[in-house]
Amino acid sequence: MKPLNEWREAAQYLDINGARIAWWTSENPNDDKPWLLLIHGFPTSSWDWTGVWDDLQQHFNLAALDMLGFGLSDKPANVKYSIFNQADLQEALLEHFSVSEAHLFVHDYGNTVAQELLARANEGALSFAIKSIVFLNGGLFPEQHRARPIQKLALTPLGPLLGSRMSRDKLRKAFDGIFGADTKASDEEIDGHWALFEEGGGKKIFHKLMQYIPERKANRERWVGALQNTHIPLRLIDGGADPISGKHMYEHYLKLIPSADAVLFADIGHYPHTEAPGRVTQAFLDFHRNLGTLPS
To answer: Cβ contacts of residue 161 below 8 Å, gap of 6+?
Structure first.
């Protein structure tokens, strides 16, 4: 991953619906390359993508933002955090670039945001055309999502207290439990994730972000239906050692999604793109070569 200070210095900002949102794009976007929208997961940020960023920008114009409540973006305490609002931010970012069509590469919480964008596309209500989506580990199916104890506690009245008592060591312990046995995050990565988590009062709104879990259940028909009813090319790249959305979710995906295209890396965990960036990039680019986005 890129050093956090370099990533921070490269951030640009947009005011979207009254919030200051951090975003990044390729160094030299050009018309010869297709656009790729990267959507990060919970509880981290777009910094996650830096391990694959340089390889991807050889082939795509990249766009990424830190969603409301995450990373370097605003973290207001007086709003209801919603997947629908986070999807609005993705549309606003591409509108800022005047992008009419884009491919998506998404992880975890970002999977659900992408499912909402896909539902809008299926309804003819999206402001850009989705050309394809590649999913990494995440709760595509609420019935398969195995929430960690800390996530369950955050949804109880103890949620605000839990956030205030979060620490770098607790983040390390949580991450160690969801990464592969041989692909744990480095101390530098944990330091960076913790700094971004704390940025702008993140501990105070930690429990509010967790509302995506009940929101997934309430909107299951819409968001799982979006996967089942689309003609847009999809691929899942799944870290099978992930206790949250690993091999069990991969197998469920193969059962429920027509003509499913899925790749399983049995030895890596919940963050495939930081644990095994080279393998994940290869699987992503192979999908796009087969699709015809890139030369074979």
So the answer is: none
* Cβ contact 68:89 at 8 Å: yes
As a whole number of angstroms, the distance between CA 214 and CA 32 comes to 41
Q: Retrieve residue 117's tokens.
A: 């964008």
What's domain 4-291's architecture? Answer: 3-Layer(aba) Sandwich (3.40)
Q: Which of 100, 108, 107, 131 is nearest to 118 (CA)?
A: 131
The residues, any chain, with a CB within 8 Å of residue 133's CB and separated by 6 or more, are: 103, 104, 105, 106, 114, 118, 232, 233, 234, 235
Domain ranges of the chain: 4-291
Taking residues 179-192, report their average pLDDT. Answer: 98
Please tell me the distance from the alpha carbon of residue 148 to that of residue 155, in angstroms, as a whole number: 12
Condensed to tens digits (0 to 9), the pLDDT of residues 49-108 reads 999 999 999 999 999 999 999 999 999 999 999 999 999 999 999 999 999 999 999 999
Inter-CA distances, 135 with 43, 104, 153, 258, 273, Å: 17, 8, 27, 15, 11
pTM of the model: 0.96
Q: What is the mean pLDDT of residues 195-217?
A: 93
Cβ distance 58 to 33 under 8 Å?
Answer: no
Counted residue by residue, the chain has a size of 296
pLDDT at 152 over 70: no
Q: Is omega for the bond preceding 272 within 30 degrees of 0, making it cis?
A: no
Which pair of tokens denotes residue 21?
């949102």
